[in-house]
Amino acid sequence: PDSAPENWQEILREQLIECLISPLHDKDVLPTGEPKKAHWHVVLSFKNPTTFAKACEVFTEIKAVVPPEKESRVKDFRQMARYLCHMDQPDKHRYEMQDVVSIGSIDYASLCMSAADEDDMLDQIFETMDNYALDSYPKVVRWTREHNPEWKPIVYRKYTKQISEYAKGLHYESKQ
Asked: pLDDT digit string (tens) for 100-121?
């Protein structure tokens, strides 16, 4: 953080390059137990193939540390996104997902959701539908907007049909 200009995130926005910015990693520790210097991770996402030199230009403009070329190419964007909060590193401090900054149209929450996360969220949705007699898709949508906006990717896009069918089943059961 010391080397970055105060407006470094604005500089990234002006570049019109999609990226993800981790929460400030200020609780990371070295293998010796000493605290690491506070830092951010920035992951750029180019729509077209680009060169290492082009990526370096962006990082240089915000005075970021540029990793060696071999380490700079992200092999799995989803895994890198999950790393921003140490989701799969139980030996490291876990940072909050809501503290990740997304510049551009990257849907961070959807990107990071694992199959187990989706199953857990569907269980929550179905349980809420049971408990509050949400027996139509519009009722579930209204509930999601008012109480659980983190459900939006599941309710609005990914499992719309399954949730609608469950709601129909609840409606049918209530008429028996």
From this structure: 999 999 999 889 988 999 999 9
